[in-house]
Design goal:
The protein has 313 residues and is α/β, with parallel strands linked by helices. Helices cover 42% and strands 13% of the residues. It has an eight-stranded parallel beta barrel, surrounded by five helices. Strands 2-3 form a two-stranded antiparallel sheet. Helix 5 links the parallel strand 7 and strand 8. It starts with 12 loop residues before the first strand and ends with a helix.
Length: 313
């Protein structure tokens, strides 16, 4: 199935998050429906998940997807495995069983590109038959030995995100001497993996992996270094993506209590990171509240345009 092109460079675009999971930190279980014997869309063979598995409600997902697009999402990121700190592993069969009933109806319901958030080559292969337009691999092609080759053959753009460890281990005493420099060096290793597989730099989106194996101060340092990060990525021929939405470090920064602000109170802080991303020239921001991000981007763009007019006067 042919893929849909990502929006062009030159502006910051919103990627809306659709978590088809029971345990994601922000909205896990939001789209839950009754456990059913779902089957994969043809031409794939049916896959069954073991036990009383989580199954997303198709109607709820489609309603939210349409709302996100109406609110300004330029693409949607669909994932069926939580990557929050401490998250348990999910088998590829279970991951696909969550995605299978959703992807084809979602593809028909919205016209924007669909990003698949997975580290599994087997899941990507099945999804390609239905139609996805971007691979968002939070392991930067490092978790599955087959992923680089499958991604290369797919022709899709690929997000390479930085992380240290796995969701189960990544927040066990992470340490950096210079987080921006170390993250960039480790992303260069991921770019080398993509190079070896034959994935051109023009297909790459680099993500510094805010919150993935990092302390609050590391995340702040990475945000401060965003202009340099974007410049380095663009010089390498790649675009950029940033995901800060509702993450724990924001709760720590705005805490009014010792244990940090809860997820539901982190949206204003998320909007601040959206503005920082836009000012730095980040290409895509991954958020849960699309309208808040779109509004912030519209105001930022208007101010930047007026600033340019003044400088040209």
């Amino acid at each position: 199935m042919s893929s849909r092109a990502l929006p062009p460079s030159g502006a910051t675009h919103v990627m809306g998050v659709l978590n088809l999971t029971p345990d994601s930190f922000s909205d896990g279980g939001r789209f839950g429906g009754a456990a059913r014997d779902e089957r994969a869309p043809r031409p794939d063979a049916p896959l069954r998940a073991p036990g009383a598995a989580f199954r997303p409600d198709v109607a709820r997902v489609l309603t939210e997807a349409r709302r996100m697009v109406a609110d300004g999402a330029a693409l949607l990121d669909v994932g069926a495995v939580s990557t929050r700190p401490g998250a348990a592993d999910v088998t590829p069969d279970e991951e696909w069983a969550r995605l299978a009933p959703i992807l084809a109806p979602l593809r028909a319901a919205v016209s924007v590109p669909l990003s698949l958030d997975t580290t599994s080559a087997a899941v990507l292969e099945r999804a390609l038959a239905v139609g996805v337009d971007l691979l968002n691999d939070v392991s930067a092609l490092g978790a599955d030995p087959r992923m680089a080759a499958v991604a290369a053959a797919s022709g899709l753009p690929v997000v390479l995100m930085h992380r240290r460890g796995t969701p189960a281990t990544m927040q066990h005493a992470p340490h950096y001497e210079d987080a921006p420099a170390e993250v960039w060096q480790e992303l260069l290793a991921a770019i080398a993996r993509a190079d070896a597989a034959g994935i051109s730099h023009e297909r790459l989106l680099l993500d510094p992996g805010i919150g993935f194996g990092k302390r609050a101060e590391d995340n702040v340092a990475l945000l401060a270094a965003l202009p340099a990060f974007v410049a380095a990525a663009h010089a390498a021929g790649a675009r950029t993506l940033l995901g800060c939405s509702r993450k724990a470090f924001l709760g720590a920064l705005i805490a009014r209590e010792s244990d940090g602000a809860p997820v539901a109170e982190r949206e204003h802080a998320t909007t601040a990171t959206t503005v920082l991303a836009a000012l730095a020239g980040v290409d895509f921001i991954r958020v849960h509240d699309v309208r808040a991000a779109s509004d912030a981007l519209a105001v930022t763009a208007a101010v930047r345009a007026a600033e340019g007019s003044l400088l040209r006067a």
